[in-house]
Amino acid sequence: MSHTSHTTTAPLKMGLALPNSKLCMWLFLGTEIMFFTALIGTYLVLRMSARLPGGESAWPSNDMTHIITWAGALNTFVLIGSSYLVVRSHERLGRGEFQKGLNDLCLVFLCAVLFLGIKGVEYHGKWVRDILPGRIAETPQAAVQKAVRQIGLAAAADPTLAGVHLGLENRLRDEKLSLEQMETELEQLVRHEGYGALVQQQVSMATIFKDRTRDENDELVPLSQDHHAAYYIPYGNIFASCYFTMTGFHAIHVIVGMIIFFFPIKKGLMKGLEHGDAQYVENAGLYWHFVDLVWIFLFPLIYIVKF
Amino acid sequence: MADEHTPGHDEHSHDAIFLKVFLVLCGCTVLSFAADFLPNLHVGDGVVGTIVLAIAVAKALCVMLFFMHLKWEQNWKFVVLAPTVILSVGLCLALVPDIGLHYYSVQSTETREAATAAAAASAAAHADNGQAEKDGR
Fold first, then answer.
1. Which of A155, A207, A223, A239 lies in disulfide reach of A129, CB 3.0 to 4.6 Å?
2. CA–CA distance from A10 to each of A6, A7, A18, B6, B74 (Å)?
């Protein structure tokens, strides 16, 4: 009798009532919370510190830094949709609907590709305008310095420009070449039949001087109505550092998420998923929801908030 | 806790909850995007910032409570999450006195140039307004 009661008693369970893998994932997410909060918090503090003497914010506007709000909003929808698909996949695997669960995982993977694609379009826009850390002229003097340096690159390709470049360097050193003077010089250079296109190609890369071309009356006009082109951007470099650090690390997390989801998708396509895979998908989902969570805060803080 | 995730338990109600949460998150994102246009209606930047950050917190809570299952988890969640939250917030607060708040007026080159540019833009805007008023008369 006593023996029977002894065998039916549940064995003493040590530790928490959750799988070790899930506990590990939560502990890892704890470190991730600290990592991203440090990045976002540092961004906020640096942004707060960018003030005009009167106390107004001196942080560059979205127009100056090529921030596209609709692209950020679209990416938010993509990540939210993928988060929903992960939980639906987990539920379906739990119910034994393995094919439907696999389909959802494939859609999650596609959402991640779409997110990176949209992010790539945004990064490309900044790349062609040279809105990159350390590359942005923050004062008129720096803008002139950058233009002269870009003409130096053109001179490396066409030695006939070397004299012009040297002359500009000398003027920059001796006369404190102003932004207006530099623009006049540039217009003359662009009009030159021999190397005008080369100069335009080099300098238009830099956003220092707005892209120029000729209209039907042979007048110089802006090449495009590019609202993001700016001669110089105060606090532009610290903006670019913050932007690329935060969104770059987030994008790396998206890529890691794609790798995590690749394995169950591969298994599902080759051998088929089973009940035991539901736990893996739940843990992968926790990671993916965290990636979504970070973007939920990055979107308003980078794209919308002004303070 | 484990029982609530047992396959087959309350499955359809969970599906419905997740779909509702997804729709709420989409609605919140639309509101955030719409808030970006509020300055056109002369709503202050501080108000817009408060609105979009409140929406972000609401969205984060939805994701954590439902998608990450914290609503149904046991109290271990507090033990795991509390230290990380305290440390991460503390780190940011520690940076504020030195970098985020200026006791002395700012004298960096960027600040001076930004002030000059803002003054020039303001003067140009005033000149435009003055011209427009003259034309109006």
1. A207
2. 9, 8, 17, 19, 20
Range of weakest confidence among A269-273, A297-301, B42-46, B124-128 = B124-128
| DSSP conformational letter for B110 | H
Exposure on the CB side of residue A264, measured as CA atoms within 13 A: 32
With contacts defined as CB-CB under 8 Å, which chain A residues touch B89? 37, 41
Q: Which residue of A has its CA nearest to B96?
A: A45
Instruction: Determine whether the interchain pair B45/A289 forms a contact, defined as Cβ–Cβ distance below 8 Å.
Output: no
Contact yes or no for A81 and B22 at CB 8 A: yes
* Burial class of residue B132, CB neighbours in 10 A (0-12, 13-18, 19+): exposed
Q: pLDDT band at residue B25, thresholds of 50, 70 and 90?
A: very high
The Cα B22–Cα A290 span in angstroms is 15
Cβ <8 Å between B106 and A51: yes
What is the 3 state secondary structure string of A53-104? CCCCECCCCHHHHCCCHHHHHHHHHHHHHHHHHHHHHHHHHHCCCHHHHHHH
How wide is the angle at C-alpha A148 spanned by C-alphas A147 and A151, nearest 5°? 90
pLDDT at A264 over 80: yes
Max CA separation in chain B (angstroms): 79
Query: Which of A5-14, A128-137, B55-64 reaches the highest mean pLDDT?
Result: B55-64
pTM for this prediction: 0.83
